[in-house]
């Protein structure tokens, strides 16, 4: 059976991190691999598949992927299987005063296509108060801004298997990384599962999506 797994999220700041990512690659055998905050220089990144700033998307040569657009916040592609669908990998603006730029980018992407759509990565924001433990609480206005952006894009959280929190620094834990999809994508892949993997040389967990749920 074709492997349809896409592990996401990583950090290439050190050789130890690279080895950890290679271990994830060997274990999961992904078709598509997304890294954010790569810290790769431009020349190195250009030798790989598709990059934008600190974002890097890599895929197997036998996989049919067409790049639709890149920005500082996302890489947007279409993937052809039995039916064409859309994948947007994202790294959200970490600063509250600039988060509206991420949400504007999401809304702009939504207006450009009606394909089955999966968006995932590090949104750098939580949806609900229960997705944060320790540290200063988010305001309801912050949560509502994120919730509104997903609603406007017709995207809903696809759930997860594993630990509730995907990011940890000291005693603060948050669910910053997630997958969201539109109704068409959920109908196309009704058995899809997202797993919050184990933290390996990073303060984020890798996300692993299996579209066939096996």
UniProtKB/TrEMBL annotation:
Q: Which domain of life is it from?
A: Eukaryota
Residue ranges annotated for the Endonuclease/exonuclease/phosphatase domain, each copy included: 15-204
Q: Which InterPro entries match?
A: Endo/exonu/phosph_ase_sf, Endo/exonuclease/phosphatase
Task: Give GO terms: molecular function aspect only.
Answer: catalytic activity
Signal peptide extent:
none
In this record, what's one Pfam family?
Answer: Exo_endo_phos
Q: Which PANTHER family does the record associate with it? A: BNAC02G09200D PROTEIN, ZINC KNUCKLE CX2CX4HX4C DOMAIN-CONTAINING PROTEIN
Query: What is the protein name stated in its UniProt record?
Result: Endonuclease/exonuclease/phosphatase domain-containing protein
């Amino acid at each position: 059976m074709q492997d349809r797994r896409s592990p996401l999220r990583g950090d290439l700041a050190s050789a130890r991190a690279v080895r950890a990512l290679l271990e994830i690659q060997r274990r999961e055998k992904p078709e598509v691999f997304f890294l954010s905050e790569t810290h790769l220089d431009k020349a190195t990144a250009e030798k790989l598949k598709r990059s934008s700033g600190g974002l890097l998307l890599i895929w197997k040569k036998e996989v049919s992927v067409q790049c639709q657009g890149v920005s500082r916040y996302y890489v947007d592609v279409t993937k052809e299987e039995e039916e064409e669908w859309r994948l947007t990998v994202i790294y959200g603006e970490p600063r509250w005063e600039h988060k509206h730029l991420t949400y504007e980018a999401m809304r702009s992407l939504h207006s450009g296509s009606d394909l089955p759509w999966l968006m995932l990565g590090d949104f750098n924001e939580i949806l609900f108060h229960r997705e944060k433990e320790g540290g200063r609480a988010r305001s309801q206005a912050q949560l509502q801004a994120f919730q509104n952006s997903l609603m406007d894009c017709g995207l809903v959280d696809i759930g997860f298997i594993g630990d509730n929190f995907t990011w940890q620094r000291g005693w603060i834990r948050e669910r910053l990384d997630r997958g969201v999809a539109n109704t068409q994508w959920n109908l196309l892949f009704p058995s899809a599962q997202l797993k919050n993997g184990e933290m390996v040389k990073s303060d984020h967990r890798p996300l692993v999506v299996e579209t066939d749920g096996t």
